[in-house]
Each structure stands twice: as C-alpha cells, then as structure tokens.
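Inverse folding, one chain.
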C-alpha cells in the first residue's frame, strides 16, 4: 500500500502478513538487533519459528497490524498498531527505525506514515504508546511530535511511560 506523506513523499507499507520470505527474515533481524530489542517489552531473542507463528497469527487478529515501511525500495523501519479499538477509536502504536540503514529523519517518516494510516485507514482518533523512561531519546522525540504523558507503570522492574496523541478530532 502506498501512502503519500505531506513531508516525505511516497512511502510504501508492507503488511507483515504479505511479506516475501526475504523481507520476513529482514524484519526478524531488525527486531532482534540489540539496539531495537533492548527497548521492547519482550527483550528476548525471537526465533524464526516464533516469528513465523506470530505473523501467521496476525492473519486472524483484527486488533493488530504490523508493517515494514519502505521508501525508494529502502526499508526505513517498522510500525505497528495493537489493541485496535474501533469503539474507543484508539490503538497502541509502536515504531522502530531500521538499525541496518540509519537514515536521518527515519523516526519522523515512520510517525507521519503511522498517523496517516491510523486516521485514513483505521479511522482512529487517538494513538497510545509506551516507552521505557530510560529511553530519553525516544521520549524527547515523542514530545516533539505531539505525544503527551498519560501515565506510567512498571514492567520488568522498569518504569514505562504511557503517552498519547490525538490524531483526529472525533466528529460530534
């Protein structure tokens, strides 16, 4: 699926459930990269079998969608939506830049594409995310792009901030 972004031109979203074998392996390598997995809720190495089972389960789960994001045939990173709730018009959102292709502005591209997809395709009004309080770089980024702190919790003995952004005003 192609998305025309306001600031970055055409970007392609590749649904994990439709990835080629090579892109599936690449997505797993990105997820298992030390600089990515250290910020995940599950910081364990994901096996190929686990990854393929996860992707297969996505085909039957309308509350989640995961995408590789490409621009000019280069993988920029990954975005995902979980806990998609049409009644509440919200979802949890996550992103990570491709650790093998460090591109300046990758986070901003991923966020703009995610907001566009959330508004136009999922018809959502609110995106939520969680970020470890130790991940100061990500918190700074999320603050700059309009996410606001909406609470906190503990996960595996680490403090996690819950942040939220309104992406579309609810029709009244």
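Residues assigned per position:
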């Amino acid at each position: 699926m192609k998305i025309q972004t306001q600031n970055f031109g055409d970007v392609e979203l590749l649904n994990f459930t439709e990835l080629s074998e090579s892109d599936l392996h690449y997505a797993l390598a990105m997820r298992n990269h030390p600089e990515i997995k250290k910020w995940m809720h599950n910081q364990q190495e994901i096996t190929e079998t686990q990854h393929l089972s996860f992707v297969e389960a996505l085909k039957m789960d309308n509350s989640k969608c995961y995408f590789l994001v490409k621009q000019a045939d280069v993988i920029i990173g990954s975005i995902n939506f979980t806990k998609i709730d049409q009644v509440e018009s919200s979802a949890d959102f996550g992103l990570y830049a491709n650790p093998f292709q460090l591109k300046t502005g990758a986070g901003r591209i991923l966020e703009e594409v995610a907001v566009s997809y959330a508004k136009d395709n999922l018809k959502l009004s609110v995106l939520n995310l969680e970020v470890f309080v130790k991940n100061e770089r990500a918190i700074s980024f999320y603050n700059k792009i309009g996410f606001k702190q909406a609470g906190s919790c503990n996960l595996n003995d680490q403090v996690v901030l819950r942040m939220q952004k309104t992406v579309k005003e609810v029709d009244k």
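The first strand starts at residue 2 and ends at 5. The chain has one domain: 2-125.
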